[in-house]
Amino acid sequence: MFFSLLLVFVIAQRMVELYIARRNEKWMKSRGALEFGQNHYPLIVMVHSLFFIVLIIEVAFFEKQPSPYWPFLLFLFALTQAGRFWALASLGKFWNTKIIVLPHADVVKKGPYRWLKHPNYLIVALEFIVIPLVFQAYYTAVVFTMLNIVIMSIRIPAEEDALKQLTAYEEAFPNEKSNKEIGKI
Known about the structure:
It is a multi-pass membrane protein. It holds the Pfam family ICMT. Keywords: Membrane, Transmembrane, Transmembrane helix. One of its GO terms (molecular function) is protein C-terminal S-isoprenylcysteine carboxyl O-methyltransferase activity. It is found in: Membrane. By secondary structure, the chain is mainly alpha-helical. The protein has one domain (2-169). It is 68% helix and 3% strand. The chain has 7 helices and 2 strands. The protein has helices at residues 2-29, 41-61, 70-91, 119-134, 138-166, 169-172, 179-184; strands spanning 34-36, 99-101. A two-stranded antiparallel sheet has the order 1-2. It is elongated, with a radius of gyration of 18 Å.
């Protein structure tokens, strides 16, 4: 029952987020925003969808029970959800599951974006670990952590390139060296 409740909560949350993302996409594109990363986006959707399928299979097939540490892990999950809400709220209408950039828009540097360029990606990485660990689904935690690393190695550079092309992204983060500068060292 606990597993079902948590799963329904997370899936319902994702459905609401997809609705918000579509609404934000329409708003941004109506103002001239451009979309990037269309080639890797289906891979992201596939991995996130498979995460739930594999988690359900692992928990059901191997009859996994909640971890003895589930209260602590559930607390960590709650923290990730608070961070997720903070990150999405900080971006407001600029948040999306896709890479959609409004030319010349101000780079968001509030909320968790004051300290991290991609806090929501960190939160997703933590969710891929914490949610399975609540139910001792170690296989799911390891496999989807590895898949997420692969996806983020594609996604983050694509997003940063898009932001650099259309906004003052590099000026917003002046203390960070670009890939070109690092290559010269």
